[in-house]
Design goal:
Chain lengths: ~280, ~200
């Protein structure tokens, strides 16, 4: 017992680089040798999938790319999975971003990739609106008339010349808004667009934002929610698009166990040391 | 080597340079940090010029003859009078417009889109167990933030319950934050192993 207490007490002086090294190994090994740890589906993810799945062919969905490149591992798989699901169901997609730094390039990359996979035609099956400064004004203005805010798309085509946009004038013509976001824009989509125009929406957000966004499920302002890489993996599994998020769940689970182990060990070391110091 | 694989190699170098800080501070980390700061600043200047000044003012004003845009253009220029002491008061006109319009939008957004739906849904669900937990959580947390009376007796007891709810919510947020940070590390590892080294597909 004394030897055990001695070892635990030593952890207080452990060089943190050993922990970094262990975390590194815990990430790399499961990526090289997948364990396929079972992945459960949470109700908010299931609800979002069900809603998108229930949309009829030729419905119109606004898909947002409101994220910076720094959160790509969490958000990009959501965009890929959502877009594949939408195109597979022959739903018309309008993409837009309210984020200036990098989102435009990410959006173009994802949309072009998936459109090529499903042989979709630009202008008829999907339209890329691009970026416009001032997200509050953009969100509100699109409720009045989208072409007032985006007279031209991301490729400088006149919006009225695109067949899809001739049928979509404002939110009244949009059946669903799928938000993928890593910042407060999701709050504005809910509190400005859903509150004022009543357009149904769901979101995929980073794990940091997820606890706050759960409150929008309670108010029924959103139909479903994907939280972080886990949420992305759930959507990939539901829509049968096995991608990077699912592959990332093995290391994610192992690191969580490792962190829980370190938290228990750290606390045990703290209490034992405190007890020893108290008895002196 | 194609431009794409050159780009991937550069990205891999900077990823490793930044992670090298975990061992100790070193010149590679400093180089990556400074290049990142410089590129971000340059990118932002280009972005402001292209997506705000050119796209929203210059082209519509001079290309499409939308002369009403002269008004916001003048408001924008007035912001720069802050650098000239004698006429710096003119910038307040622009600021007044920004503050006024933002306050107007935010007031409606917060009240109509946040406060009212949250209050309504909190009290509509009292018939369920989780609904009752939520009502107790909301009320006790609000009472914890009521500082006009000393937290003693019944008030102190309810405030104590509020602290528990706050602590649980901090725990949930922290757990999610750990997951987010780990995801970013996994993303970089996937990039190195897939796009750079081609070890995994």
């Amino acid at each position: 017992m004394n030897a055990f207490i001695k070892v635990i007490s030593k952890f207080k002086e452990l060089d943190r680089r050993y922990i970094f090294f262990l975390i590194g190994i815990a990430v790399i090994l499961p990526l090289l040798f997948p364990l396929n740890i079972p992945l459960g589906i949470t109700q908010p993810s299931q609800n979002l999938f069900n809603k998108v799945d229930s949309l009829e062919e030729d419905s119109k969905v606004l898909l947002t790319f409101d994220y910076y490149p720094s959160t790509l591992p969490e958000t990009e798989p959501m965009s890929y999975a959502a877009l594949r699901h939408l195109f597979r169901k022959n739903i018309k997609v309008i993409t837009v971003t309210t984020i200036p730094l990098g989102a435009l390039s990410v959006m173009e990359g994802v949309v072009k990739d998936v459109a090529r996979e499903y042989n979709k035609e630009y202008g008829a099956d999907y339209v890329n609106l691009g970026y416009k400064y001032g997200y509050q004004a953009v969100m509100l203005g699109m409720g009045r008339k989208i072409s007032d805010i985006f007279p031209r798309d991301a490729y400088d085509n006149k919006l009225d010349s695109l067949p899809l946009m001739q049928k979509v004038k404002n939110y009244d013509d949009v059946d669903f808004i799928f938000i993928v976001s890593d910042n407060a824009t999701v709050d504005y989509w809910v509190s400005l667009v859903n509150a004022r125009f009543g357009t149904p929406m769901g979101a995929g957000v980073t794990a940091v934002m997820a606890p706050k966004c759960y409150s929008y499920l309670q108010t029924r302002q959103m139909v479903g929610l994907l939280g972080g890489m886990k949420g992305a993996a759930e959507y990939e599994k539901l829509s049968k698009n096995y991608g990077r998020a699912i592959r990332g769940m093995d290391p994610q689970s192992i690191i969580h166990f490792l962190i829980i182990f370190f938290v228990i060990l750290g606390n045990a070391g703290y209490f034992i040391t405190r007890k020893k110091e108290g008895s002196k | 080597m194609s431009w794409e694989s050159f780009g991937v190699t550069v990205a891999a170098f900077f990823t490793l340079a930044l992670y090298s800080f975990l061992y100790k501070d070193n010149p590679f980390y400093k180089l990556a940090e400074h290049i990142f700061a410089g590129i971000s600043a340059g990118y932002y200047v280009g972005l402001v010029w292209h997506s705000i000044i050119k796209q929203q003012l210059w082209t519509p004003l001079f290309g499409e003859k939308q002369y009403l845009l002269i008004i916001p253009g003048i408001f924008g220029i007035l912001m720069f009078t802050r650098f000239i002491n004698r006429i710096s008061w003119l910038s307040r006109l622009s600021l007044a417009f920004v503050v006024g319009s933002t306050a107007g939008i935010t007031l409606i957004q917060q009240l109509h889109g946040m406060v009212l739906p949250q209050v309504r849904s909190t009290f509509l669900n009292v018939a369920t167990f989780s609904g009752i937990v939520m009502v107790v959580g909301v009320i006790s947390t609000l009472i914890y933030f009521y500082f006009s009376k000393e937290h003693k007796g019944t008030l102190g007891f309810i405030a104590q319950i509020g602290i528990w709810f706050i602590m649980i919510s901090f725990g949930a947020s922290f757990g999610y934050t750990v997951m987010a940070r780990v995801s970013l590390l996994i993303g970089r590892a996937q990039f190195l192993l897939t796009n750079w080294l081609h070890i995994i597909k």
